[in-house]
Design brief:
The protein is an all-alpha fold. It is built from ten helices and two strands, in the order ββαααααααααα. The chain has a two-stranded antiparallel ribbon with strand order 1-2. Helix 2 packs across helix 3 and helix 3 packs across helix 9. The longest helix is centred in the first third of the chain and has 14 residues. It starts with 8 loop residues before the first strand and ends with a helix.
Length: 306
């Protein structure tokens, strides 16, 4: 079977985006043949999140969605600059396709709020505008999905609010709070919550909830579970891991590689989840300035080239 030739990726010193085909700054990052596990070193520490074949989507449709074409699309649709230093570019591209083109991870893990949520001002497709994802809130968590417990006691307390988590990498380069690949696979396969921030209420905690009538009182950070609503507090709630667990190891590894390549964001603006740790804050190592919509690219350059 013929393996398609690999896509070109732009390499520009200041993360300039939208370079045309044939630009002298282009390099072949996935040279000759796109075998996903090929380790090809990048010639640039700062690579924009673009690919250069405009017809990639058409070719993917016409070629049975072969992986090389999906990688190209992944680079085209990545909404933030990518740091490919030490990364497998093919895995990064495929991971971007899954995260941005299939799973809509940013739809839940955005820090943006109404009216645009994960879209930039003036780039909301639901307003009939050309789609522009806001890079300053990309995958940094903070969306509130409500409570999942059984309303209990005079105040009808149903437990802490479920807040989507910050998926961006920390100073170690590992995504989602510094989790290892093995841990990340466990999260997507089994829904394991390594932070245990919303445990099931104990009998003593339930008694406290039942006895509390003051709406200003502090209630336990736990989920009241009852017969018929037997929530498991050791598992991630709301997050669709029961669907994601059907992915192959190869696909999960691609997602992990992509999330390792996106900019670190320390989300200090969204309301954090109750309890500890605060899963929205992120230690970027002091090398990343707070992201603003007009300097997202240069920030990643500074991180890649301290």
């Amino acid at each position: 079977m013929n393996v398609p030739t690999c896509p070109l990726i732009a390499s520009a010193p200041l993360c300039s985006r939208g370079l045309p085909n044939g630009h002298p700054g282009l390099l072949t990052a996935l040279e000759e043949r796109c075998k996903i596990r090929t380790n090809i070193p990048s010639r640039s520490a700062c690579v924009p999140a673009i690919a250069l074949v405009d017809s990639a989507r058409v070719r993917a449709q016409n070629s049975g969605d072969d992986e090389a074409a999906l990688i190209q699309i992944g680079f085209q649709i990545a909404p933030v600059p990518l740091n490919l230093t030490g990364k497998n570019p093919a895995l990064v591209g495929l991971g971007s396709f899954i995260v941005n083109g299939q799973a809509d991870c940013n739809g839940c893990h955005t820090a943006g709020g109404p009216p645009n949520f994960n879209y930039a001002s003036g780039g909301n497709p639901y307003f009939g505008q050309k789609t522009i994802v806001d890079p300053t809130v990309y995958l940094s968590g903070g969306s509130n999905f409500g409570q999942v417990g059984t309303p209990t006691g005079p105040l009808g307390y149903a437990g802490p609010f479920i807040i989507s988590r910050n998926l961006t990498p920390d100073k170690t380069g590992r995504p989602e709070g510094g989790h290892t690949l093995a841990e990340f696979k466990d999260i997507l396969r089994n829904g394991t919550d390594f932070d245990h921030i919303h445990p099931i209420c104990t009998d003593a905690q339930l008694a406290q909830i039942e006895a509390t009538t003051d709406p200003n009182a502090t209630l336990p950070v736990c989920i009241p579970a009852t017969f018929g609503n037997s929530v498991d507090g050791g598992l991630l709630q709301v997050m669709p891991w029961p669907v994601f667990h059907n992915m192959t190891d190869h696909q999960i590894e691609a997602i992990y590689e992509y999330l390792s390549a996106i900019p670190c964001i320390d989300n200090g603006t969204s309301t954090p989840p109750a309890g500890a740790p605060n899963e929205l804050r992120n230690d970027c190592g002091g090398t990343a300035a707070p992201l603003r919509s007009n300097d997202a690219a240069s920030t990643v350059c500074r991180r890649a080239n301290p």
